[in-house]
Design a protein that fits this description.
The chain is built from 22 helices and 20 strands. By secondary structure, the protein is an alpha+beta fold. Among the domains are: 272 residues, Orthogonal Bundle (GROEL, domain 1); 142 residues, GroEL, CATH 3.50.7.10. It has a 6-stranded mixed sheet with strand order 12-17-16-13-14-15. A 3-stranded antiparallel sheet has the order 3-19-20. A hairpin with a 4-residue loop joins strand 7 and strand 8. Pfam families: Cpn60_TCP1. This is BBS12 protein. InterPro entries: BBS12 (IPR042984), Cpn60/GroEL/TCP-1 (IPR002423), GroEL-like_apical_dom_sf (IPR027409), GROEL-like_equatorial_sf (IPR027413), TCP-1-like_intermed_sf (IPR027410). One of its GO terms (molecular function) is ATP binding.
Length: 706
């Protein structure tokens, strides 16, 4: 070998080793069963529970260049997809180790870059045969719905009526208890509907309410977040007394409720299929998916009435409540947020009253200027007593703000950015509710239904900018009681016809607040990207298994370029060996991925046992003659990488596991691009940029195998 390559292999590649060390901490985040980690802040001694690569990288001290590149790569994946970061982090570590092993075998850097890049491109093309359209997935999920038992009679102590319910096969009627005092007839409509059906929510399937025979409409009760569909052939019948109450409490318009109830659906399988698709994409996160299913049912009904998009992610917001059990999590119409106890006192005077609302697209501070604002040039102000003048100017600005709000009779002010504390105090004293840090999507939603027009500065305000019809109330839990969490109080802002839905996420563990919110948004964005792609991958390790089979086939193919085309004799002799070694290094990442997932789910006692199982399926796929056909058949049977039970558990009978297409392949590409970038950077540091560029041009112009 030339002296330059000996120098590269003789010295340590610090960047690759740093990537491997950082990625090692994220191995437990792979698969449907994840092991969480506690991150402790040394400055405050507070701990946070994390279960994602994003939160892990944000918590680590990344002082090295490789660590910074890894952080930027994961943040880019998170910003675009909100999923696939754990896969990306793991493959970065696996491929970094594989590249180091190639270097130890004296494989040239340019050969590694060329073969790995072409190999990944070839695999991404090959796995396209494992894609399935969303329409086909919905049909399959709808046709494979769980069969229910014959209807059984359950006595409802609240209504003094008997209700006939069709339960799943593993649930008996004796397990159902509807508490007599859990709800009030005179309480909030949504609270009543949610509490009434909540005892059935834990069973995972509830039928449509009081529907005629042959009615194929779909209903959903959001307190449980569980979809009811005629596809399940489950039906809930009841006495005439309950039917009378249903007309007043279970209407399709639930803007005054804390939960949501969907109305008829033109396609009986559509909402049912999307709900189960969300579950199949969640990989076991059932709590978040039940909330998402509730939102899906509402948006499905609204799409049929208004012609809007079937799943609109901008109409979803979250509010995390610390201090309530997780069973209190629900979906609430409108915008739920947290305010101070002082602001809550103002809200008590506003309940059931229409308010005049103002939207501000900026900060409500004296120093705020919009993006692109240019201060006048060559202007200098000299003051004799600057502090005194600043105090007077601040009082004048504060007074002018309050005068403007009072003159236009503004009761509610939603601000996109920060709010000055002095303004907040003066507004509370004058019974004006100001809420800051409101997202742009929330402002847009309120603007559409209240006719309010956002302004950047209060000086731009006129009568046409102020909207009307908003209502504010204290948020109530499923038992109908307002919740007081001490330092913060949850409130709900609603308007008739607003499409906004808030997923209220509750927990009693402070360290889990960020975790449950991340899990919910992951489920939301997986469904969002699946609908955008209009297709999904077969899950359960099917895609990675086909990549391994394809790489095995590529390794056995002869080189297309003849050895005589290579000017360097040493490269012509070793090029065949390089190809096989590098391709196997690429395959190592996916093989380790499958092995670690099987170990994390306790379906393999060790990585050696898991690798043996993977090799077994690779041999079966090769003997079949068509690896993709073998994988399809095993996926349909539910035996792919299972050995009877398997690591990728289904979420119910007949419900398969699926993966996002674009998010998965982009995670692969970003992981490999990062590893190869660090590899080439290390090589330039060791050998010098000129030598590395010479070797790159010398090898990459001649090294082709596909």
């Amino acid at each position: 070998l030339p002296m330059a390559f000996r120098d590269v292999n003789a010295r340590r590649h610090i960047g690759l080793q740093q990537l491997s060390s950082l990625a090692l901490a994220g191995r437990t985040f792979l698969g449907p069963i994840k092991s969480c980690k506690f991150i402790v802040d040394e400055s405050t001694n507070q701990s946070t529970l994390i279960c994602s690569a994003v939160r892990l990288i944000e918590s680590l001290d990344l002082s090295s260049a490789a660590g910074q590149l890894l952080n930027e790569t994961i943040q880019a994946q998170n910003k675009e997809f909100k999923t696939g970061m754990s896969t990306l982090l793991f493959l970065v570590g696996a491929w970094s180790n594989a590249v180091v092993e190639c270097l130890q075998q004296n494989v040239p850097v340019s050969a590694i870059v060329s073969v790995m890049s072409e190999g990944l491109n070839s695999c991404c093309e090959r796995v396209q045969c494992l894609q399935i359209s969303i329409h086909d997935v919905n049909k399959e999920l709808c046709s494979s719905s769980v069969k229910s038992k014959p209807c059984q009679i359950v006595h409802d102590g609240l209504l003094n009526a008997q209700i006939s319910v069709c339960f799943p096969e593993d649930v008996s009627a004796s397990e159902v208890v509807i508490p007599r005092n859990s709800c009030s007839h005179q309480g909030d409509d949504g609270n009543f509907s949610k509490c009434l059906v909540s005892p059935l929510a834990s069973f995972g399937s509830v039928a449509s309410l009081d529907k005629p025979v042959g009615d194929k409409s779909t209903s959903l009760i959001s307190g449980s977040g569980v979809i009811a569909s005629s596809c399940n052939k489950q039906k809930l019948t009841h006495s005439r007394y309950f039917s009378t109450l249903r007309k007043s409490h279970f209407s399709s318009q639930q803007d005054n409720s804390q939960g949501s109830l969907s109305g008829p659906s033109a396609d009986p399988c559509q909402c049912y299929g999307l709900g189960h698709l969300a579950m199949a994409l969640s990989h076991g996160n059932q709590t978040s998916v039940k909330l998402l299913q509730s939102i899906l049912a509402y948006q499905q009904e609204r799409a049929e009435c208004s012609g809007s998009t079937q799943f609109n992610i901008v109409e979803i917001v979250t509010c995390c409540l610390l201090g309530l059990p997780e069973s209190y999590s629900c979906v609430s119409p409108g915008f739920v947020t947290l305010v101070s106890p002082e602001q809550a006192t103002v809200i008590k005077n506003f309940e059931d009253k229409p308010l005049r609302i103002l939207l501000m697209d900026g900060d409500l501070t004296e120093q705020y200027r919009h993006l692109g604002f240019n201060r006048p040039c060559n202007v200098r102000t000299t003051l004799e007593h600057p502090r005194l003048w600043e105090g007077r100017a601040g009082d004048l600005w504060l007074s002018s703000v309050l005068d403007i709000l009072i003159n236009f009779e503004v009761n509610l002010l939603l601000v996109k950015g920060n709010v000055c504390e002095n303004v907040m105090e003066r507004c509370i004293a004058n019974s004006i509710l100001v809420i800051g840090s409101v997202t742009r999507d929330v402002l847009r939603a309120f603007g559409e239904v209240t006719s309010a027009q956002p302004v950047t500065y209060l000086t731009q305000l006129n009568a046409d900018c102020v909207g009307s019809g908003a209502q504010v109330e204290l948020w109530k839990a499923c038992d109908g009681r307002a919740v007081d969490l001490g330092e913060l109080v949850p409130v709900r802002i609603k308007v008739q016809g607003i499409p906004l839905r808030t997923a209220v996420l509750t927990t009693t563990v402070a360290s889990k607040v960020q975790l449950i919110e991340d899990q919910f948004w992951t489920s939301v964005y997986r469904l969002h990207h699946a609908l955008n792609d209009k297709k999904v991958f077969l899950g359960g390790g099917a895609v990675e298994l086909l990549c391994l089979s394809h790489i095995q086939m590529l390794s056995e193919q002869p080189l297309q370029a003849a050895n005589k085309n290579f000017h360097s004799p040493w490269l012509a002799v070793s090029v065949t060996e390089y190809k096989s070694v590098v391709l196997q290094a690429l395959a190592t990442g996916w093989k380790q991925y499958l092995s670690v997932v099987m170990c994390n789910t306790a379906k393999a006692a060790s990585e050696l046992e898991a690798c043996t199982s993977v090799d077994y399926h690779l041999k079966k796929a090769a003997d079949c003659g068509s690896p993709s056909a073998y994988i399809w058949e095993e996926f349909r049977r539910g035996d792919l990488l299972r050995g009877g039970s398997g690591p990728f558990a289904d979420h119910g009978e007949g419900l398969k596991v699926y993966d996002n297409v674009t998010a998965k392949t982009e995670a692969w590409r970003r992981a490999l691009d990062l590893v190869l970038l660090v590899l080439q950077t290390d090589a330039e540091i060791i050998t010098g940029p000129k030598t590395n560029q010479l070797l790159n041009s010398h090898v990459s112009s001649e090294f082709m195998f596909l």
